[in-house]
Amino acid sequence: MSGACSATAEGVRTVLGRLGITLSVGAALLAGIASAVGIWRPEIYARETASWAAQGVGQDVVTLFIVIPIAPDLTYLLLKPMRAPARWGSTSRS
User: Fold this and answer.
1) Can you give the pLDDT at residue 77?
2) H-helix segments, the chain
3) To pair with 88 at 20 to 30 A between CA atoms, which of 10, 30, 36, 44?
4) Taking the chain, what is the end-to-end CA distance rounded to the nearest angstrom?
5) Interatomic CA distance for residues 69 and 81, integer angstroms
6) Residue 92 burial by Cβ neighbours in a 10 Å radius (0-12, 13-18, 19+)
7) Which residues contact 59 (CB under 8 A, 6 or more apart)?
8) 38: how many CB neighbours lie within 10 A of its CB?
């Protein structure tokens, strides 16, 4: 009985994992588009104070050129099985 329950739980985790990755990729694409528009369309921050506009453009630059490029690496790390070395589970001090 526990085998069937375990298989169902694993299936649910797989579906939720795929859904989470799909939604994350979609959010990253939207963030990239919004950042690009914020950088290259000056009228986006035209009504803001100079310091607020500079901060907005700076955040857009960081999002577009730092966060978005590392997103595939983070997805890979999320999908990669994590395995600790066997000695981490050891209670002896050798």
Assistant:
1) 75
2) 2-40, 50-62, 68-79
3) 10
4) 41
5) 22
6) exposed
7) 35
8) 19
- Residue 63 near residue 31, CB atoms below 8 Å: yes
2-40 vs 50-62: helix axis angle to the nearest 10? 130
C-alpha span between 37 and 91 (Å, rounded): 55
Both tokens of 70, joined, read 């590392």
Spatial distance between the Cα atoms of 50 and 81, rounded to a whole number of angstroms: 46
- Using an 8 Å Cβ cutoff, are 25 and 75 in contact? yes
Amino acid identity at 63: T
**Structure tokens belonging to residue 43:** 């009228």
